[in-house]
Amino acid sequence: MAKPYWLVKALSIFTIVLFTVDTGTDGYVGYDLYNRCHYKYAASVLSFVAVPGFFTGAILSLMLVSGHFDDDDESFIEKYGVWRGLSASIPIVLLGSIFGAILFIPGTFIYLVYSAIKTSDDTQEKSKYAKGMEMLLESFPQFILSLFMMQALQLTETLNIVSCSVSGVSVLYGLGDFLAMDKSETQGNYPFSMTVWGTLSTIIDTLFRSFLLAYWMTISKTYVIIVPFVYCIIMGLVTFIKAKKHNFENFYLSFFNTIISFGISSL
């Protein structure tokens, strides 16, 4: 049984509020850390705010230069040769990453509002992917960083508690919704009970991973940051190599699913 219209509207508004509060409090925490002269931690927090846009811009730019949007499906290298193709592709990908980091937050907010107004299955599905990108690459790392800073720096003020709590809710709800969407036959509209069960099935796993990494950071502040990147690179490459077809779509899905698997083992 699909969600009723009023519930789709309510969840869309809840997603907008969650996204706005999550990114807003994280940005303000970074600003507050800078004012407290915790420059490295401020840089870490503010960097993760920009990571989803950077990653999305890079992916879209790679899709452009690989010919994904063209009817002939030819990459720049196939069209213009190796050297001319690379000399055009590299600046496009770099610029796309930079513009993505700048435009992702306002662009996602606008699309979430649009999906709340036009509650079709297609817009709902795309809005979930946009919010999911922010949840995976921003909320989850920020949740771990917030737990670490509350332990190591003893930052237990209202702002830090709210930021940590909102990031945690965003991660748990987002992963549960991803799990529900992955297991449902209708990608855009499925029973809300699936999201609830998905969240409950991931809560212990995700929280345990977050607390473990946050505690590890209190012991080894530098090297623990490398772990997610090494994991995603190695597992993403292994998954892509084992895929039957070595195309851009499988390359993207290999790394996207690997990033998800870092926070949840149910997918």
Describe this entry's structure for a reader:
With 267 residues, the protein is mainly α. The chain has one domain (5-221). It is built from nine helices and no strands. It has helices spanning 5-35, 39-65, 76-80, 82-117, 121-152, 158-183, 192-219, 223-242, 248-263. The protein is globular and about 55 Å long.
Main attributes of the structure:
single chain, 267 residues, mainly alpha, 9 helices, 83% helix, 0% strand
Q: Which regions contain 5 or more consecutive residues with pLDDT less than 50?
A: none
Q: What is the tally of beta strands? A: 0
Mean pLDDT: 82
In whole angstroms, the N-to-C terminal distance is: 22 Å
Q: Write down the overall geometry.
A: globular
- Give me the secondary-structure category: mainly alpha
Q: Compute the gyration radius: what is it? A: 19 Å
Assembly state of the chains shown: single chain
Helical residues, percent: over 70%
What percentage of amino acids are in beta strands?
under 5%
Q: Which series of helices and strands comes N to C? A: HHHHHHHHH
Major β-sheet, in short? none
Count of structural domains: 1
